[in-house]
Amino acid sequence: MPETTTTRPGMMSAVGWLLAPAADEAPRAHAVGATALRILLGLMWLYNVSWKRAPDFGKSADNGLYHFTAYAVSHPVFPPYSWVVEHLVLPNFTPFGWLVLVLETALAVLLLTGSWVRLAAALGIVQSVAIGLSVAYAPNEWPWSYWLMIGAHLILLVSAGGRILATDAVRAGRTTGRVLGQVWGGLTMLVGLSSAVRSFGDPLATRGPDLGSSDLSVSLGAYNMVGGLVLVVAGALLVLAARSGVRRLAVAAAVLSALAGLSLHAQLGFSDPFLGGTPTSAAYLFCLAVVGAWLGRSRAHAGVAPPDHVDSAST
């Protein structure tokens, strides 16, 4: 009788699990709670990118990201980390600032759209640890903030946070994503219309009115009238694509949103952004691009319907 061998889970299986859709079978209450936590964390990172400003990220004025990163040296939490910040990070701060901006933008986009939720949760743990090691001992900080951030991402890591309103559910074949597209499209049209109306007195402002509250640290970005109209068009394309199943409409929404988001990063800190936005605005636009991209390639939009038994919790 041939000898059988048992393969132990290794690094490849761990990576595969990390990259797999977080859309496992789970009680609906669990899926709803995990989705709420995912969106809450996504909103946190979405607001958090607003003050990561190129080109020097606060180095010349000793404010912003540079100021808070330097706390790792002046108020050290873990001396080896302080040494790294002092000798490697601060002398090369511009590329570090771009790295933080890209990472936190990715966290906002992945969590809000429910894309690669486990990977996003793991990255969120890493970034939460890094922030805590920088500022936990700084004046007026509460160290438990960072313990709770780590814990929240850890819970999300092992949850079914990609079952509801998530592209992970589309990736897993549990839904076509039509509800996801309509929700994002409808919300975006409202955001765009609000921005356009509120910008009427100064339609080309370099920074349009904020859609949120700095006191509550919640924002969906800032847009002038041009930015608002871009959102209206992108949102309408998503809604039409979700309702009609026409892939090209979703792809058009994705391309328009991605180009608008990239244009903000090309201008912010270097010239006046013609969309009147912020890094948070760019992150929101990238969310639309991701949703549009997945809607454009989902099976329903390729002419193949998902199984009839698809769980309604996966929309």
Output mean pLDDT: 91
Unreliable segments of 5+ consecutive residues: 1-7, 300-312
Provide the helix percentage: 55-70%
Strand order of the largest sheet: 1-2
Beta strand count: 2
Overview of the structural elements:
The protein has twelve helices and two strands, in the order αααααααααββααα. By secondary structure, it is an all-alpha fold. It folds into two domains: 14-157, no CATH class; 178-297, no CATH class. The protein has a two-stranded antiparallel sheet with strand order 1-2. A hairpin with a 4-residue loop joins strand 1 and strand 2. The chain is globular. Mean pLDDT is 91; it is low at 1-7 and 300-312.
Question: How would you summarize this macromolecular structure in one to three sentences?
Answer:
This protein has 315 residues and is an all-alpha fold. Helix content is 61%, strand content 3%.
